Amino acid sequence: QPQLKESGGGLVQPGGSLRLSCTVSGFSLDEHAVGWFRQAPGKKREGISCISAYDDKKFYSNSVKGRFTISKDNGKNTVYLQMNSLKFEDTAVYYCVDRKIPECTDLQIEFGDWGQGTQVTVSS
């Protein structure tokens, strides 16, 4: 069974930074793409980023482009999401998802296996 575990969330002030980690098992990052979603209270889940398995293609939603950076270390079985210039509206539970195929597709498609999530709170 594929397993994913997010870590690195916490409380941060506006303008600050956090780095989230997604450690995976049961599949290889050189075979499956991995995406990041977030869900704020009362809102739908939002796909915000994805990294492909083979060719290092990276994708971002308009809401995070220029502020967030996705990367991975295949040897460590870990995908990272570096979040800079954080805003109040970035407050959410952040999830990583195994897309089960090598290429990223539409960021908003929720197909795949999910982790438990990690809370990010941006507050003064």
Structure in words:
This protein is mainly beta. The protein is 0% helix and 46% strand. Strands 2, 4, 5, 6, 9, 10 and 11 form a 7-stranded mixed sheet that branches. The chain is globular.
Features:
46% strand; 124 residues; four-stranded antiparallel beta sheet; 11 strands; seven-stranded mixed beta sheet; mainly beta
What's the layout of helices and strands?
Layout: E1 3-7, E2 10-12, E3 18-25, E4 34-39, E5 46-51, E6 58-60, E7 68-73, E8 78-83, E9 92-98, E10 113-114, E11 118-122
Short note summarizing the structure:
The chain has strands spanning 3-7, 10-12, 18-25, 34-39, 46-51, 58-60, 68-73, 78-83, 92-98, 113-114, 118-122. It is mainly β. Strands 2, 4, 5, 6, 9, 10 and 11 form a seven-stranded mixed β-sheet that branches. A four-stranded antiparallel β-sheet has the order 1-3-8-7, with no helix packed on it.
Shape descriptor reads globular
**Strand elements, count:** 11
Order of helices and strands: EEEEEEEEEEE
Pairing-aware structural class of the strands and helices? mainly beta
Overall mean pLDDT = 96
N/C terminus separation: 40 Å
Q: How much of the residues is beta strand, in percent?
A: over 45%
- The total of helices stands at 0
Radius of gyration: 13 Å
**Main sheet specs:** 7 strands, mixed
Low-confidence parts, pLDDT < 50 over ≥5 residues? none
Q: Residue share in helices?
A: under 10%
